Amino acid sequence: MDDFQPLLDYINRLVQLDENEEKKLCDLISYRKLLKGQYFLQQGDICKFSGFVVSGCTKTFFVDEDGQEHVVMFAIEDWWTSDMGSYISQKPADFNVQCLENTTLIQISYEDQQELLRQIPKLERFFRLIIERAFVSSQKRIVRNLSMSAKDRYLHFRNVYPKIEQRIPQYLIASYLGITKEFLSKIKSQLILEQ
C-alpha cells in the first residue's frame, strides 16, 4: 500500500477511507511508468484508464483536421489525467494524453472504478467532488477565454500554475492560451518592460 500512498493521501483530504476500504482500492489500481513523449491515450482509442499523476507531467490535446495541435490541459503531481468523456462513455477519445516528462501514474480501469463505487460509497462522493471541481474549472476557463485579453489569460495562468510554467515549453503554453508562440513572446517582453 505504500506505493499508492500519494493517491491515498489525496483521497483522504476529501473523504476518509478506513483500512479495509484502502486495501480494496489498492487491490484494483496499478502503477504505470511512461517515458517522455509516450502516450497514455491516443485520439480515437477508447480511454480504458484514468491516471493519477505521482510524478511527471502530461498534456491533453487534440489535433484538428489541418494537423494543428490544441492543448486543453496539463497535469502534474496530484492531478488526474485522461479523456473524461471517453472514460465515462467508453467511446473513442477526442483527446490525446502525452507525457512531457518521464511520468509515473497510478491508474484505474473504468470497470474497476465502477466496482469500487459499488463497494465503497465514499469513493462515489470523492469522484463526484473531483469531477465537480474539474467542471467548474473548465467553465471558468471558457469564460476567461471569451472575456480576457491574451495578456490577462497568460498572467492568470502564471499566477495560478507557477509550477507548470517552468516545466513546459513556451509553444505549448501558447497553444493552451489559444495564441501563437510569437505572440506569447511579445506579451512576456512587454511584461518585462513594465517591471
Features:
Jelly Rolls; four-stranded antiparallel sheet; 9 helices; 50% helix
Percent range of helical residues: 40-55%
Tally of helical runs: 9
Summarize the helix and strand pattern as letters: HHEEEEEEHEEHHHHHH
Average predicted local confidence, pLDDT: 94
- How far apart are the first and last residues' alpha carbons, in Å? 49 Å
Strand content bin: 15-25%
Question: Within the CATH hierarchy, at the fold level, what is the topology of the domain at 2-120?
Answer: Jelly Rolls
Poorly predicted segments = none
**Structural class, please?**
alpha+beta
CATH class of the domain at 2-120: Mainly Beta
Q: Indicate the radius of gyration in whole angstroms.
A: 18 Å
CATH architecture of the domain at 2-120: Sandwich
CATH superfamily of the domain at 2-120: Jelly Rolls
Question: Could you give the order of strands across the largest sheet?
Answer: 1-8-3-6
Number of strands: 8
Molecular shape: globular
Main sheet: strands, sense, barrel: 4 strands, antiparallel
Description:
The chain is of the alpha+beta class and 195 residues long. The chain has a domain of 119 residues: Jelly Rolls, CATH 2.60.120.10. It contains nine helices and eight strands. Strands 1-8-3-6 form a four-stranded antiparallel sheet. Strand 4 and strand 5 form a beta hairpin.
Q: How are the SSEs ordered, and which strands pair?
A:
Elements lengths: L4 H8 L6 H10 E6 L4 E3 L7 E7 L2 E6 L5 E7 L4 E2 L2 H6 L6 E4 L3 E7 H10 L1 H27 L2 H11 L1 H4 L4 H8 L3 H14 L1
Antiparallel strand pairs: 1-8, 2-7, 3-6, 3-8, 4-5, 4-7
